[in-house]
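Hey, can you fold this one?
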Amino acid sequence: MRPIWLIEAGVYVAEVTPLLAEIRRQGMSAELMAYKALQNGAAPIVDGAPIDNRACVIGYGTFSFAREIQLHRKWVPGAWCTQENLDCAAYYARFGRFLLNQQYVILPGVEAIRQADWLFRVFGSDCGELFIRPTGCQKLFVGRCVSQEDFRHALSPALYDPQTLIVIAPVRQIHREWRLIVIGDRVISGSQYAEDGVRCIRRELPDEVQECAVHMLTEVRWRPDPVFMLDIGECEDRLWLIEINGFSCSWLYQCDLPAVVSEVSQLAAQTWEQAATR
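Sure. Predicted structure:
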């Protein structure tokens, strides 16, 4: 069974072109589809025919696009981004000793605002700023560093949902950052994506970064999904886990596309075949 790759249109712009080309080079079908069309129940047309409800499909795009597939389509595997597992509240406790955010609290946004003075006194003493981000993968705002003056405004998106949880931690200066793609216990590929807080994409994956990831995966046997992303950063001459992301809603940067497409497609086909025999 050859999977069909269904990729959200308008998200990765020109960067998606090499991915589409590689999927097709390996003999599989790939098509772009707008999120609104998927949300409205449209049947994607691939190679002149609608995708069957029971087809082997890999969804790839934003979290909303992937979640729409998970909730409203019967495709297998559909999308890899298990919402509850990719929440910081789920994986921080498991990967705790590897985390960049060694000291942190998780609070509802409204409570974080109420406790602002205490939070800045405990976590913001060095530079007068805190790092904040939503715990969930459907991010109401981008994780960033904020001053106490801007704290309430930065958390204002969370005020509309008192259940939205926020990570609050001291500011850490990250030198370089890499994204690694993991299937099971194996690192399939990786790419640098930032340096000193600025987008900086390079194909190189240093041996020590890959070894760090393998060590984490050996020590922690829990997995959020069969395939997922590890973001690892260099801070104060050490490597740390920055965050875990879902494969179906995270960009590949300069990862080895032939390897990624081949390995992920094989995993999708195996998953589909196992589901078909049940």
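The radius of gyration is 20 Å. Let me know if you want another pass with a different chain boundary.
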